[in-house]
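Interim report to the steering committee. The following record documents the input for LamG domain-containing protein (352 residues).
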Amino acid sequence: MASIFLGSYRALKMNSTYVTGLRQILLSGCILAASTQVIAAPTIDSVGASIVGSGMLVVKGSGFSTASGQLALLDEVDSHNIARDSSTPLEASASDVWMGHGSPWASGLTAIPLDGTPEAVYYGKGKTFSKYIHALDGLNNSTLYAAWDYMPTESPGHSGGSNKFIRIWDNHDGEETRLSWTQMHMTYTGGGPSWEGWPGSTNKWNRMEIWVDGDAGVVQASVNGKLVHDIKDFKKISDTIGLNVALLGFDPNSGSKYSTMETHIDNLYVSTSRSRAVLSQEASWEKAKAGGHIQLVSDWSPSQLTIQLNKSGLERLKGPAYLYIVNDAGEVNPDGFEVCQVCPNPPTLTMQ
């Protein structure tokens, strides 16, 4: 069963004609277009390659805010990169990502190839998860943003139970801050629970997102761009231990009832800030937020930032690419800034 869905995913990722053309354009320095948006923040004025062939884009505009002190991890399963405090992203090993896998009652997520190719996704069956991000350990962050692509082969609530997709704690013993997002509700310290089902689809990729702000007492969670939890009475308990992903995968109350269910996860992005850059084939944020491709950012300032292009951001695009900047207030340009697919030769600044 898994090979069927993974094969479809491979086809989505490997549109080689478009990928080759877009990659050449992005790395040649000819990536210039104009934005039609008129709002004050964020606004993108220009995009260009920082160094020809570097895969790094310089974005100029306004309203980007800052990402001071931000730590961001992008885990594409077969590649792992970490950016600290707006510095250039550094490659990490798989062992640098997770502190642990599974439990005595659960298997850990493992990387499996897509039809024998180097492309990979995280996979598990039944009760399966990995836990705690190495890079977050020891920080004192009161905010946490996480996004990942999730594909289950069965409904995550077909046999009842309270079945977790993600758990966020600070103290590893679970005695202080606790938050769990399940297929039927969100439980958390300070109030709740917040009751809402999971609106995703089986045998398809679903974009899962959660933003936790311990300072403001806010938790927001969405599936495929649809807000399903909007909490305003969350309370972070520890003032010395930062928030971390205590569990990610699928953790049902009763493993035996979901023993045949397969879980696939890809493109995990975890950050201490919700500031981020997103590439999408959709021209409006209303559609792009359901599955855009997050890019790591360095040299972040209110008027300029540098994007390090990642592999999935290119390979899963099948049409014109549009860029979005989300600032630390969660504001975003509603209309994408188009990254031109065909540029003049020799490279010139082209305003459309």
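Residues 240 and 298 are 27 Å apart (CA to CA). The committee is asked to note this result when reviewing the revised timeline.
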